[in-house]
Specification:
By secondary structure, this protein is α+β, with helices and mostly antiparallel strands. The protein has a single domain, classed as Peptide deformylase (Peptide Deformylase). Helices cover about 30% and strands about 25% of the residues. It contains 5 helices and 7 strands. A 5-stranded antiparallel sheet has the order 1-2-3-6-7, sandwiched between helices. A two-stranded antiparallel ribbon has the order 4-5. The longest helix is centred in the N-terminal third of the chain and has 17 residues. The chain binds zinc ion (ZN). Zinc ion binds next to helix 3.
Length: about 170
């Protein structure tokens, strides 16, 4: 288990559509262990595999930051099967240090995924939990939270984005 550098905005891997995971082998287990170490060190809420440079369909959520439960939720080949409502809330991303913007997303979401033991599960989420699931699923599709902003909001942070891109290059 080792921490990995978190990929910053500007790295092309963040724009890749991640590949499904066919088999939960030792390579995937090691990847997830490294992601957990990385997320805990960064004290973040969620992390997708491509944020550590691996374009595979897995993300993790530190649920203790949501409801105080001590669970690291591992979501392999996740899908959102249902969403409802709409809510605007401030959002950030470990690949965009120092940038926080209000983003509108569904208020509730239903997730289907596979855990590290290969068992399929379903979770109904609202509030910050739903937001985290939707944010991380976006990552696996090469989509970033800034894509949800209005062109005006993006313009207002364009200098910060440019600076990040130059650091990532
Ligand atoms: Zn993110």
């Amino acid at each position: 288990m080792a921490t990995k550098p978190i990929v910053l905005y500007g790295d092309p891997v963040l724009r890749e559509k991640s590949e499904p995971i066919e088999k939960i082998d030792s390579e995937i287990k090691n990847l997830v262990a490294d992601m957990i170490a990385t997320l805990r060190k960064a004290e973040g809420l969620g992390l997708a595999a491509n944020q550590v440079g691996v374009a595979k369909r897995v993300f993790i959520i530190e649920t203790s930051m949501i409801d105080g439960s001590d669970e690291m939720l591992v979501c392999i080949n996740p899908e959102i099967t249902e969403t409802s409502g709409e809510v605007e809330y401030e959002e950030g991303c470990l690949s965009f240090p120092g940038i926080f913007e209000r983003v509108t997303r569904p208020a509730e979401a239903v997730l289907r995924a596979t855990d590290l033991d290969g068992i399929k599960f379903e979770r109904r989420a609202d509030g910050l939990f739903a937001r985290a699931l939707l944010h991380e699923l976006d990552h696996l599709n090469g989509k970033l939270f800034i894509d949800h902003l209005s062109s005006l909001s993006r313009q207002l942070i364009s200098k910060k984005l440019k600076k990040l891109r130059s650091e990532a290059a």
